[in-house]
Design a protein that fits this description.
The complex is a heterodimer of chains A (271) and B (545). Chain A is mainly alpha-helical and 271 residues long. Chain A has helices spanning 6-23, 25-28, 59-95, 97-112, 115-125, 130-157, 160-168, 172-208, 220-227, 239-264. Chain A has a single domain (6-34, 48-264), classed as MetI-like fold. In chain B, the strands form four sheets. Chain B has a six-stranded mixed β-sheet, sandwiched between helices. Chain B has a six-stranded mixed β-sheet with strand order 16-17-18-13-19-20, sandwiched between helices. Chain B has a four-stranded antiparallel β-sheet with strand order 2-1-4-5, with helices on one face. Classes of the chains: A mainly alpha (271), B alpha/beta (545).
């Protein structure tokens, strides 16, 4: 951990800051999330550091609560997509044959439609709640994870130590979790960072389009949507969440890049 | 005596290492080696892996592979120190004055370009010849190296010629720009013994006819004895002994050289067959999915309890396929595997846990046969847990016992495979299979990836364990010296058929069938002039036919 490059350190700093704020949002936010405390689009002042939004709520509080929602939804969806994607991917690699064909072609089918469009169609039909949102995003993204996991596992599956385990008579559970998973973890963890960022962008996009997190709940994409009309009048309220999304994306990517570099290094960087 | 062509003085070479869990640091891998090479002479560099022989070979082209750096000393080629000369001069040197033949020709040729384009490339690039002249010289070299159809073989792509032919093409490539020095880096190691002879003879004649000097790098003393004038023995970056080939082979001075010369001198008393074999392979015919021909044809062999059956053959003879059929990884099309008196299910899924336990396997590449994320304790402990339900202290005790049996000891328990040497890894694999208390172990080329002295240690260990545990070995190998050392009976395989089978004494004594004769006579022997004798013997035979 000593030789962290400066870029990764900056990324790590911002990422930790965002997660910290998300976890302790109720303690940090100066006002309530939906509390109307002033006029429409007030400029920043000592009471309202970032000013107020389109109906007079404190923008800083909205940003803090919004970050909490965005990061929570993105994290939950990422975990869901990794668990389903990698378990199915490993299973396809170990079972091979028909099981592999059915799973892989199914995934191809889902991937052939842009995931935003699939999500919009599904979310337009069912009532949008946070759990539904997480499940839809997680399952759509699981297709990408599935592909990576399967590709990695297929390479590991032909190693002699996996064959030795099969000859010993081990079941699929041991082979997947004890032989394949520990060796597939590095590329998967690196991918985790990248996928998390796609999730942040995904949920923000959905909220901006009105099919994501529903008001009065705040989230960054939603705040952009609520305040976008202000831009015409020179009100910068919509830009703050945009900046937050961008900095979070860049900082997580910096960390992910560093992890990726470490794990793919041929010179014993693994581990 | 004229000035030496290559003069190396106090050559020191370093590299950066990245040990797991530690900070990267620099180590020295060659500690001040000096030697001379006269024009037209051949110097053999011999040593085990890690001895620094390839590194020294490449240093004579002022090149360090990967993170390797030349840190000190002088390398003089044709009267100038190439470590101090300009980059432009080095460009003229490489591929002009000094050329290189690597171990794997298949990996070194560009598969997308015709052989001729690659053979003449350096000569044309260095402006030694025009393209036309270079091609004419290449054809001459093809003919000299005994390649079939030398006028047209250059128009083929690398995958359209065999491995041995490609290695000769690479020799032509190295000789084409009329270099003063050729570095041969294990040019025959990846080849079958029967192919190795042809390539060796071709290289030897080409060196003699063109008057080029050569560094010949190999780990096989018997091979280097055939081609070189002088031999330098290296060990861990130090020169152990330097002398004429005759002196090194017949009168080695240093203990290490003596050990290398006398390697594979294990005495093994042949055991008599018992009435009840532990494994009986009955009429096995097998093919891989998607192939339209059989890889094994009607194979019948028996293995008796506590004995060793060696299965010998070149690559592609079907010996590893036989192992896959016996283990159940490849269900046969026809025939039965009778093991310990019961007929085994043809596929892995149909076998009982007891079947699996009693039939274990050890692999050629120990480093991929062990999960890199498991400790030695987990690797050896898993079969104990899995087959015998051992837990906690009982399991630990048994692991320590096994580690003692393979001469490693308790301190290895918490190490990861990456922290073991090649020989130690193979020992752990042996312990893993012994942990299951098997009746029989399939050993698939278990010593081929190891250095001769280490391999010797493994063979001795296997023989000792056979006495203690009374386990039978099915020993798959292409190396006849190993076969002599370890087997009680032998099956010689050729193109998926068993061509000769019986007790060791019988199989290895005349009269021979043609293939066994070819195979036996191809094993390099450690005396001078062996190569010429074999080639002369073969010429006589073919003249007689």
């Amino acid at each position: 951990m000593k030789n962290i490059p400066i870029s990764a350190l900056i990324g790590l700093g911002f990422t930790v800051l965002y997660f910290f704020v998300a976890v302790f949002a109720p303690l940090l936010a100066p006002y309530g999330m939906a509390e109307i405390v002033g006029d429409v689009w007030e400029p920043s002042s000592s009471e309202h550091w970032l000013g107020t939004d389109n109906i007079g709520r404190d923008l800083l509080s909205r940003m803090i609560y919004g970050g909490r929602t965005t990061i929570f939804v993105a994290t939950a969806a990422t975990i869901l997509s990794f668990v389903t994607g990698s378990v199915l991917g490993f299973l396809a690699a170990v079972l091979g044959g028909w099981a592999d064909q059915v799973l892989s072609r199914g995934v191809d089918l889902v991937m052939s439609i842009p995931s935003l469009i699939t999500a919009l169609v599904v979310l337009a039909m069912v009532p949008v709640t946070i759990p539904v949102l997480i499940i839809v995003m997680g399952l759509l993204d699981a297709t990408r994870v599935y592909r990576l996991a399967r590709a990695v596992a297929v390479d590991i599956e032909v190693m002699d130590y996996v064959e030795a385990a099969k000859l010993r008579g081990e079941g699929h559970v041991w082979i997947i979790f004890r032989e394949i998973l520990p060796n597939a973890l590095s590329p998967l963890v690196a991918e985790l960072g990248l996928r998390f960022i796609f999730m942040v962008l995904f949920v923000s996009t959905l909220s901006f389009l009105g099919l994501g997190v529903q008001p009065p709940l705040a989230d960054w994409g939603g705040i952009v949507k609520e305040n976008k009309d202000g831009i015409v009048y020179g009100i910068g309220a919509a830009l703050y969440p945009a900046v937050a999304i961008a900095t979070l994306a860049i900082s997580v990517n910096l960390v992910a890049d560093w992890v990726l570099n470490r794990t793919t290094s041929l010179k014993g960087g693994r581990g | 005596m004229s000035d030496p062509l290559l003069k190396v003085r106090d050559l020191k070479i370093g590299a950066t290492v990245y040990p797991p869990g530690e900070k990267p640091h620099d180590i020295e891998i060659v500690h001040g080696v000096s030697f001379d090479l006269q024009p037209g002479k051949v110097l053999g560099l011999i040593g085990e892996s890690g001895a620094g022989k390839s590194t020294i070979g490449l240093a004579s082209m002022a090149y360090g592979r990967g993170g390797v750096k030349i840190t000190g000393g002088e390398v003089w080629v044709n009267g100038r120190d190439i470590l101090k000369t300009s980059l432009k001069d080095i460009r003229a040197l490489r591929g002009g004055e000094v050329t290189y033949v690597s171990q794997s020709a298949a990996a070194s040729f560009n598969p997308a370009k015709k052989i001729m384009d690659q053979v003449v490339e350096a000569a044309v690039e260095q402006k030694k010849f025009s393209r036309k002249q270079a091609e004419a010289r290449a054809r001459e070299l093809f003919a000299k190296l005994g390649l079939p159809d030398p006028d047209n073989i250059g128009d083929r792509y690398p995958h359209q010629v065999s491995g041995g032919q490609l290695q000769r093409c690479m020799t032509a490539l190295a000789l084409c720009p009329e270099p003063d020095l050729v570095v041969f880096d294990e040019p025959t190691t990846a080849l079958d013994v029967t192919t190795q002879i042809d390539v060796l003879m071709a290289i030897k004649e080409a060196i003699r006819d063109t008057g080029v000097a050569a560094l010949y790098i190999t780990h096989d003393l018997a091979v280097v004895a055939q081609v070189s004038d002088e031999i330098m023995v290296l060990r861990m970056g130090d020169m152990v002994e330097f002398g004429s080939t005759d002196q090194i082979i017949n009168n080695p001075q240093k203990e290490y050289t003596q050990a290398l010369v006398s390697v594979r001198s294990i005495d093994h008393e042949e055991k008599q067959p018992t009435p009840e074999p532990v494994l009986s392979v009955q009429g096995i015919t097998a093919r891989y999915k998607g192939l339209n021909f059989d890889v094994l044809h009607n194979v019948n062999v028996d293995l008796h309890p506590g004995q060793t059956l060696a299965v010998v053959g070149e690559s592609g003879s079907g010996k590893s396929t036989l192992a896959r059929v016996i283990t159940g990884l490849l269900p046969p099309r026809d025939g039965d595997i009778v093991f310990a008196g019961r007929t085994l299910s043809p596929s892995l899924a149909g076998r009982t846990r007891e079947d699996l336990r009693e039939l274990q396997m050890i692999y050629q590449m120990a480093d991929v046969a062990m999960n890199p994320r498991q400790t030695v304790g987990t690797i050896i402990g898993r079969p104990l847990e899995f087959y015998f339900n051992m837990r906690g202290a009982e399991k630990r005790k048994r692991i320590v016992e096994l580690l003692d049996e393979i001469e490693l000891g308790e301190k290895f328990m918490d190490r990861y495979p990456a922290e073991l040497s090649g020989g130690q890894k193979q020992r752990v694999c042996i312990a893993r299979s012994l942990a299951a208390k098997p009746k029989m172990i399939i050993c698939d080329e278990v010593t081929s990836a190891l250095d001769p002295l280490v391999a010797d240690g493994i063979l001795k260990l296997l023989l000792d364990l056979q006495k203690i545990e009374d386990v039978a070995y099915l020993f798959i190998t292409h190396d006849l010296a190993t076969v002599r050392a370890i087997s009680d009976s032998i099956a010689v395989m050729y193109q998926g058929r068993v061509v000769r089978y019986g007790p060791k004494s019988q199989v290895l004594s005349p009269p021979f069938d043609d293939y066994t004769d070819l195979l036996l006579s191809s094993v390099p022997e450690m005396h001078l002039g062996w190569l010429e004798e074999v080639v002369a013997h073969r010429k006589m035979e073919s003249a007689g036919n």
